[in-house]
Every structure is written in C-alpha cells, then in structure tokens.
Amino acid sequence: MSEAKVALGRRLFFETRLAVTHAYSCASCHDPARAFTDGRALALGATGQPTANGAMSLVNVAYNISFGWAKPDVHSLEAQMLEPLRNQHPVEMGLAGREDEVIAWLNADPEYRAGFAQAFPQSGGRATFDRMVKAIASFERTLIAGHTPFDRYVFEGRHDALTEPAKRGMALFFSTRLGCSACHSGFNFAGNWRDAQGTTGEASFARNGTSATALRIPTLRNIALTAPYMHDGRFSTLEAVIDHYQQAGKHRSDKNEPHLQPFVLDANERAALIAFLHSLTDEQFVAGFRRLPGERTHSLSGR
Prior knowledge:
- By secondary structure, the chain is an all-alpha fold.
- The two termini are 30 Å apart.
- The chain is built from 13 helices and 2 strands.
- The protein folds into 2 domains: 3-143, Orthogonal Bundle (Cytochrome Bc1 Complex, Chain D, domain 2); 149-281, Cytochrome Bc1 Complex, Chain D, domain 2 (Orthogonal Bundle).
- It is elongated.
- It has a two-stranded antiparallel sheet with strand order 1-2.
- The longest helix is centred in the last third of the chain and has 13 residues, at 238-250.
- Strand 1 and strand 2 form a beta hairpin.
- It has helices spanning 3-13, 26-29, 77-86, 99-108, 110-119, 129-140, 149-154, 164-173, 180-183, 192-196, 238-250, 267-278, 283-288; strands spanning 204-205, 212-213.
C-alpha cells in the first residue's frame, strides 16, 4: 500500500478503456453513490449481459476474509478481480485475450506510465497485468466506512446518535428471538466469522421457501443504499427482506439452517428493526467521496 499505488488504482477503477467496449469500468457495477453497488438486481457486464448475481458492495471490503458470492476459497481482492476482468460467460470487463493489448496501451500513455513508475518504483515505470490488479486492489482497500449513527452510539458513547426506535431495533437485531446477528456479525455485520468456520451461507431461500443455497453473507453496512437485496436482487425493500426471513423461519431445517429463527414482528417492531438497519449507513463516507475530473460510472444507463 502506498499513496501512489492507491491513486493509480483509483484511476484504473474508473477507467473505461479497460473494458472491451471502452465504455465500462469497475465503477459501472460499483458506484460510490450507491455504497459501491449498482442498484440492479443482477449486475451487467460491459456488453450488457447479466451476471448470475448482484454487485456486492466494496465498502470495508478490506476486512473480508473471502470474496465473491459463492467462492469461499478466494481469499484476496487480487484473486477475486480476475473473474470480472476475464470472465467470458458472461462477459464482464472483457479483458480475456486482450491483456497484452491493454498493457501496451497503458505503457504508451504518458500519464499512466508516470503513475506506474511512482506506484512501482522498482519496475522502471512499466505496467503489467499483475501490477494493474495490485493497484486497483490497493484503492479498494481504502474504501473504509465506520462513522454511522450506530458507530457513534456504540464506539463513541453518544447516546443521542440513535433514535429510540433504532435502539429498540438494535435490541431485536441482537436478540436470540430473531437471530440476525448470528450470521451478520462483527464490525462489518457480515459473514467473516462463519467464513472462518467454513460455514459460509446467506440463508438464501428459493422463492418457495423450502430450499437453500450456500452463499456469502454480505455486509449490512450502508444497507439502506444498496437495494435491491439478496444475491439475486429479488427484494426491492428492507420490509420485503424481513417478510422473507419471517416466512423462512417457519420452513427452516434444523440441520441446514439452524440459525434461522421462527418469529413474528408487529408493526412497531418492524419499524424499529428497519430504523436500526438505516442507522448502519455512513452518510459521511458517501457524501465525502468526491469524484475527480473524468471519473464517471459509465454504466449502460448513462450514469
């Protein structure tokens, strides 16, 4: 990690010329305004092909111990990045087979040549595919957000940081009655603990509520900004997610989903739980991320 490497990685993160269409970038699926997600049920690649899952938030991704929705053996951002860069079925960035062409262009560009020389001073200023990936990963590791109302309440002792409904929702979230925190645990409200135990799995029930697929448990930080929800974006609101888990608890299998609890919330409890989930949004981080000149998401919808 170095300031020069992060600056280079940030530029590459927003660079549309890496994509096969020259009109797409990493930021197309990971928009800073949406807590580095894209607002779609399924992420789209550079050519418009849908991927199998939604775009996962990159906020606080430095704390993850595995990456991606369904590959718990991917343990670094560098390893994870190879998939969107080189995927062909579907195409995401479309870099497969174009690596030499892209690296030659980076080495021919005076500004990128200077950037690589500063970021990798022992490289003679040469861009390589490996150095490009390392630079982008360095930028992604700086996307740290931890100044939510919840953080101010718990870590700074500011008792007015949470509303009374949010405090009641917090008590529900951490209660054994609901069991939310059994999966969404730790500082990041994610699945790191369960990953470490080898039991990764979003309790991702099929629409009939009777079958489940093991998937990564995503962070709940900035959850109010990252709709739609679940790996396939099937729910557009937090209310729908709560309804889903309320129904899923009734059909759980003690063997496969022991942490899902059967529960019923009244209207006040539902409102309180949602108020707590909203308290996990770091407005300061989102508002403070200012795009530099030329940085756009360049998504297919023109954002």
